[in-house]
Batch of 3 targets.
Target 1
Amino acid sequence: MMPPLLCALCQYYKMPSLNFVLPHWLYWSGLLFFPLIAAFLARKQDERKQSVVGTSLPIAYMLWITGGFVGLHRFYLRKVWIALVYLPLFVMILVSNHSSKEIRVEVSDTKNNQLTAKFDIEEAEKALANKVEGAQEKLDQARASLERFIAQTADATERFDRWELASSVFGVLILLLLIVDAFLLPRMHRSCIAWEKETGFKIKVVENPRVDVIEDPTHDLHSRYTDWIDTISDFAGQFVCYWSLLAVFVYYYEVIARYVFNSPTNWAHEGMFLMFGMQYLISGAYALREDSHVRVDVVYLYFSDRMKAWVDVITSVFFFIFSITLMLTGIVFAIDSVSVLEVSFTEWAIQYWPVKLTIGIGGLLLTLQGGAKAFKDILILKNLKEA
């Protein structure tokens, strides 16, 4: 058996559980405001036009918060040797949690076996009272099984507590290191800056030129009747592209909560699943504007601009059948969903009606962009005829 002191440590120093559930209002406001803030910051960064930068203290603190448990902040500030202390501690937390999960299943199984043995004892006692032949033998076997399962449960529980204690000890050590580093970060940053100045080391930010293979002859064609549609599609596409950054943060939280704190969430997967569905719908018009939709272009690639315009005008009939159907069907779905304020059937119970609204919105944007493209195809045909 575990000594009393060790039992006390297991009771008071267990790894905490993360019981945070993302509020619905925070989810929807995040989808609305995060892209706006991210776009503003990206524009400010572009205005600065920094091509050469050094290490940053805010970035160091960000790494301390998000990846400090593996020493990312020290790697960033080039304090590599001390940073290596974090890695084995974190690995031991993962090993301890994995082992405790396996033993937790064993504890559950032995407790269920106890219930089964108790039931067998009750049945054997009834049979013995009714003087059924062989009842005493079954009763003795059931009692022996119960004693064996009780001993197995006690042994598994003791091993589970030991692994929980080990996980807690490693977690406390990492926490203490992080607290110390929180005060040491400014000094480490100054030391790193001094080293950069001494060695002339700089982090160069290289902007890779964008290489697009645009086959659509209408891509660079402008018209006062269609430019406003292109602007709307461009805004919608860039707006939802920042949602992908949200997924990075959410899944990062999910992995840490699941594998470090043994506290998987009930909202991360569902929230991102719905977000990507809405992103797919709203960005369809932007993808059409940028000629990014998948199509069979083995022959189309070699057509002249005039022939491409003819093919696009003819095949646009099938496109509008799809986009208008999507728009009208989405509107019907949205009206039905809004009328009952539909929510999901999961434990999180997130609102479904905003998701249904994006079906109609995406269909409308796609139809408008398709109309703009068809109009510009006609302009190409008209200009070529006049030429």
Target 2
Amino acid sequence: MRAHFLQHVPFEGLGSIEQWLRAAGYAITGTRFFDDPALPDPASIDLLVVMGGPMSVNDEAALAWLVPEKRFVRAAIESGLPVLGVCLGAQLIASAMGARVHPGRQKEIGWFPVHAVPAAAQPVGAAAKPPAPDAFVFPASIDVFHWHGETFDLPEGAVHLARSDACENQAFQLGRSVIGLQFHLETTPQSALAMLEHCRDELQPGPTVQDEATILAADAGRYRRINDLMADVLGFLTRPQLAPGR
């Protein structure tokens, strides 16, 4: 099995995802757009992970590789490939599938709770249709790590999975094998420190922007809980699919 990741800046890597992939037996390859934007044949991979970054999905004039990246993400989704998007990655999925990505009401940086949306919620744009089967179920409430200023509208047919007080669309699912997360469940103490080192100028006072000391004060249990939840998400996306009618 082969997992391929799309990385946008050197300091936002796989985090805890890498350990899960290796334990599950995946060979890991990646496209690092800051180094070489070459993309593989989607048919040659078994799982696609789209990571975060400080840029916007709307920066196509400055970052020309965003255009083929979105085409690649859409092709992977339409082929039925399991796809996970994290923060910018979730925004790229939304944009690739025709939804709007735009500035949020306020930035969310630090440890804040997200809340599960009932699994029976209606898919966006799917009037009178039942929700997608087998929607992933988040905990009723869990503190997670955020670092974002933009948000997304939900793509057509998406199931809304999680929200926060500051940002309505925190997680969504498309079909059985695509999940977008606005927040970072893969964060480790090392990756949180790397983000702070490169982006601490964004820590401007606000109701949902924590200071550096508060962010770094998170204990091991907090990281373990989000990493365990990321493992659950990855397990859900890569589970064997039953044939229709079984």
Target 3
Amino acid sequence: MYLDEVIAAQKRGERRGIASICSAHPEVIRQTLTTFEHPLIEATCNQVNQFGGYTGMTPRDFASFVRRMADENRMRVESILLGGDHLGPHVWQAEAASDAMAKAGTLVADYVEAGFTKLHLDCSMRLADDPKGPLDKEVAAARAAQLAGIAEHSGSAALRYVLGTEVPRPGGTTMDETGLHITEVEDASETIEIHRRAFHALGLHSAWERVIALVVQPGVEFGDDSVVPYAPAAAQALSNCIEEQPLVYEAHSTDYQAPEALKNLVRDHFAILKVGPALTFAYREAAFALAMLEAEWLPADQCSDLIRVLDRAMTAQPAYWKSYYGGTQQEQAFKRRFSLSDRSRYYWSQPDVQHALERLMQNLGSEVLPYSLSSQFLGETGINAQQAIALRIGKVLKQYSAACSPGN
């Protein structure tokens, strides 16, 4: 398995990593499949679960969706790695532990049976009948081990596990909420040891040998319009700590980091780089640029009006952004369009938005776009609308590919 090759290379002192593409957007997945020799595509518990998640897909649906896209693009399905992110009771936090964990168990079993082999087990959240305050680490680890036992029963030796309780919530967070800090060495070591004991207590010795990574906070994050860049010196102690373990780190929220920062993260053993919002942000940028080009090129009554249609969908169904975007109505409107957290990614599958997008692409066609308008709105010339989208997403993906490849 390629994940094992990454770990082995890291332990030899090589700067090798793997980008973890956490997105259900078709265009993002398509570009991922064409960019990486060993693409790792992940679904989160709120995107994809036994009840459909916000994508409407079960784990089996999502796996079939990715594999079908690979077939359509004549890519080897065998090279694709599927991962499950934040697998645990997050979606059911308002329920009692017994009910929430039962549903989390079904979730994990469904992911494994659908062919997902990289599992991030996250039981860090407090459930309805847990004592108030942060969840006890021993309880979180015991619950993660419980889910690993279910995975082992459903799966095979191909499974690889990622653990860690110091993680951002699925769907994103804000810097104000987290009080951003780098994981302490003592906390990282303690988390590993607590989980080791929990796995062994359930007789999961073989599963423990296949734990490949720990999720930590290396000091990277992004807000609505700002990015906290990776500072290698500040994370040096944490980086050194993992060298004593047969693991690497998994870093979440690496979106919008500079290319050199991504390379430094991989060099410092944050070998699994999670990225998601930056890719759908790139898609939105391209779609908005094309809509602006369309508005200058065609009569108003022929235009898709994509930007307004998307905003109407978001304001009509605010559940996916309301708790993330504060401020005045004007500030919220700006964030709905341009925030780096890109909560608009939850709305592209809405029927009205899909219809507007289809009209936009039909209006612009497959021919090369006018030079002057293309230069003005896309910063590129000699391309058509579909190529404009692919280039914008591809630029982000290539930065991750370069960061994870030792020869670059």
